[in-house]
Amino acid sequence: MWGADLFEIRIHHLEVGRGFCPDGWVHEKTVPFGIIAQATCGTYELQTESGTYVVTGSEAFLTPPHLPLRIKHIADAATGVMTMRYVHFQFYLMDTFDLFHLYELPHKCNPEKGQQFGELIEKLLALRDTIPSGAASITAIVTKNELAYRLLSLLLELAKPSENSASLLSAAQELQPVLAFIRDHWFEPIDIDLLLSKFAGSRSILFQLFRKQFQQTPMEYVKSVRLNEAYRKLCTSDTPVAEIALTSGFVNSFHFSREFKGKFQMTPTAARKANKLWMSM
């Protein structure tokens, strides 16, 4: 019998791809989703705030959301080619916040785990390249979800809970009504009084819990959700930037671009171009 305290884990974002690039190409970015990437020919050199990682052969690199990355692509010496496969992922806990807010991922995995990631990515790529209809499309969705959760299972085998994961989870449970409201209404006008109306405690406790859980004020968190969702729209649609700005809760495109660049170190237009380049290689 399943315990009543189990939490739902939902696939919020899953994007898979493969490609090639010239030797020495460097991609610098900060993104609102996790990445698993593997060089199928050549080598990755990954730089993060914690150090530099050389990833080659069947190894793969793993990075959580919102981590500044510098990714150098090094061609295979024999062929002069660099090819790769990758998946961008985001799993939500309680349908409200990123699961990997509670875990720490190693930035590199061994060849054995890398091979398992590679096999799952290949299956997701094969599924992406088919266009089923009718009942077959339902089967494809189920298969995609199965592969995504197998991917998550592998990630959790490598991850370790953060030191404060238990207290973070407790805070998230207390904030659940507020987080759920933000999830459903992030694109609408929201102020602190509206958030307080969804919370059973006082204003000071609300601020304390948000600081503990997200290192942000409630309204800073709302802005962060809006920017994350806007980034996802930029990467998955051709909607004009100005329209994304207005439908993401920002007063105008100038305000949106300023806040977006502050969070992701590039303009919305540059982020869209970089993602299209990354996905088309």
UniProtKB/TrEMBL annotation:
* PANTHER family reported for this sequence: HTH-TYPE TRANSCRIPTIONAL ACTIVATOR RHAS-RELATED
Keyword annotations of the record: DNA-binding, Transcription, Transcription regulation
Entries under Gene3D superfamilies matching the protein: Homeodomain-like
Species lineage, top-down? Bacteria, Bacillati, Bacillota, Bacilli, Bacillales
The protein depicted here goes by the name HTH araC/xylS-type domain-containing protein
Q: Which domain of life does this protein belong to? A: Bacteria
| GO MF annotations in UniProt | DNA-binding transcription factor activity; sequence-specific DNA binding
Domain named HTH araC/xylS-type is located at 176-274
Q: Establish whether keyword Cell membrane is in the entry.
A: no
What's the short name of a Pfam family annotated to this entry?
HTH_18
